[in-house]
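Workshop exercise sheet. Pairs work together: one partner reads the sequence aloud, the other fills in the structure field after running the prediction. Swap roles for the next sheet.
Pair: D.N. / O.F.
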Amino acid sequence: MEKQVLPGYIFSKVMREVVKFWRSKGHKMVMYLDDGMGGASTLHEAELVSLEIQKDLDKLGFLVAADKSHWEPVQELVWLGFVWNTINNKIMVTSPRVNKLKVCIANILEGYDAGFVWFDVKSIASVVGQIISMQTVLGYDVRLRTRYLYFCILARSSWYSRVRLSAEAVSELRFWLTSVEEMNNNGTLLSQLTESDVSKVSVYCDASNTGFGGHLTICSEGEQVEFEWYGVWNEWESKQSSTWRELETVNRILSKSVDKVEGKSVEINSDNKNVQHILKVGSKKKKLQDIAMSVHRLCNEKDIQITGKWIPISENVRADSLSRMTDCDDWSVRQCVFDYFDNIWGPHTCDRFADRHNSKCENFNSKYWCAGSSAVDALSQMWTDHLNWVVPPPKLIPLVVRKLENDKCKCTLVIPEWKSAPFWPMLIDKEGNFKHYVKNFSKIQNIHAICRGRGNNGIFGKKDLLFNMIFLKIKF
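Structure field:
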């Protein structure tokens, strides 16, 4: 069967040679099918170019629609549904297109607010198509903030069926209804922006099977300041795709450093090429899209401008090293055991050695900064205002005992029953009994009291070592 050649294809091929001829003479010219636009630096030059192009079209035998043509140079005109304004150096979507989009969205939301959740798939696709067509002005937000609508469209059984709108899709519709006009009024500059004087931040992120890590560099007024963070995935997180882990790393590093990057321009460096793309336009996979939207919501709230950049692994060694670090002391007391002692000796108000995954109290101190942490480095904090839950790494028990004696605070101290350990004599008097400030104590076998953390917890949590954990009620 002979392939059919469309007239539009033939016309475009013919006009390509004409445009090539004009551009070879230095004329600034662009064509889309039978619509064209040209420009020049001055009014006089534009007039000369206009006359020359009219003569060329006449010589080549083209028929020109005079009523649709603008041969007199202007500084604002409508072309292909956009307003091109060289006075303000902006391009904007025409008002009729914006108003049409708002009416279509308002009609859908009116039905949704009235209790309808099923809508004609073509009406949803029409709205998405209109939004996407405005990308030149509205930027990559048109793709990032239509992903949930796409998910609904993809759930169709046919183009004549109805689809159910998700809450996220409705949220996208409300965003465009309230934001499209303002975004369009801001427009897009026709020329490149000048270099911003906003302090720039470079963030390097990486993720491994076990954890995530990142560091950032802030350059401002000739000074350079660096920060770094790392963490460990839980069991569910470690089983996610590499792209999920890399993207979630960006989300967590930005969240951890939000006070340092607020109001700044941030360059996200990752050795995963998908991260750069998803941060810009979102993802077809809901789990990845959710993270991308979390990042952008944070950036909108804190006035952070982000750009993604791919870098080779060889340039991301430091972040890679941080992502493979683990906390060997993130084991913890089982929740049921804590509940028991909290009931008889509590209520405890601060967990002094914890993280966001194993904290037993709303207030907690962590080894490194993490979401929800009240402070970093428990030993540098004042303990006197709380009834403390203290489960320290064994190597820190001597320092903890000294702090308890110095601060005269109340706590439940959890230690292994290691009578040969250096800390043991610190808690025992000359008669071999616990010192006077130990008001009560209880013993539970390690395997019944302790649950392993996500790192390499050594002997803690292993079933073949049956030493006791001792719970000490301390009050001065």
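Discussion prompt: The chain has four domains: 7-74, 95-189, 200-323, 332-474. What would you look at next?
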